[in-house]
Amino acid sequence: MDLRCLALDALSEPDPSKKAASVEAGWALALAGCEADANLELTSRLPLPGRPERPRLVEPGAVPRRSPFTLEGRAALLHAVAHIEFNAINLALDAVWRFDGMPQDFYRDWWLVAADEARHFTLLRTHLQAMGHDYGDFEAHDGLWSMAEKTAEDVVARMALVPRTLEARGLDATPPMQARLARAGDQRAVEILAVILHDEVRHVAIGNHWYRWLCEGRGLDPQTHYPVLAQRYGAPRLKGPFNLEARSRAGFTPAELSALPAD
Fold it and tell me: Which fold has domain 3-34+46-253?
């Protein structure tokens, strides 16, 4: 049992329930001492990532914005978050199998992230089902995975632009979303988002750690190299308001926080 092979198998699985179960089983093996062969050269014979036929994927601007103050709108909002978590499972697994030559802690860290994201997805899906909906009922976009494809050959860019850019946006967006859902009377959704926010601070911190570790090994300054990568790979422009407290706990330095745009 090799953690990188297991990650590729789980990433290739299209069924969301089976994927989540595979991740849970893989993380149990990691906790039991299973390791990753950092020198293994892996290739996939299946399309990546494995995902179900639904939801239908559209351009980001084509996903309709819904009000959380109707049952349908609230379900659509939570579906969007579930889709983010499903993609986050795939992103963590992809980091494990794709990038060779990394320390064991790198592979173990991203298996931990995959396990957290699978738990988040399951919590959201269960809540959606209680609302009379399921994952796949609404349209979604592929913005998160498209950045994984862009950075497939550059582990430094992957660490810079997925966990500490795209996923860090969740640190900013979650508290306002919780407030809207609380006003809509969905306390269970508020509780689930609290679990997600707590764990995402750790995930972004993992991204920050490995980005800095990689920069140090390559003689790069993490702060000045970031905008180079953001421009090279077309990362979305950072927009406030920012959750500075959560970002600080996730390992962003005071200088990085000060450099965030004011608008």
Answer: Ferritin (1.20.1260)
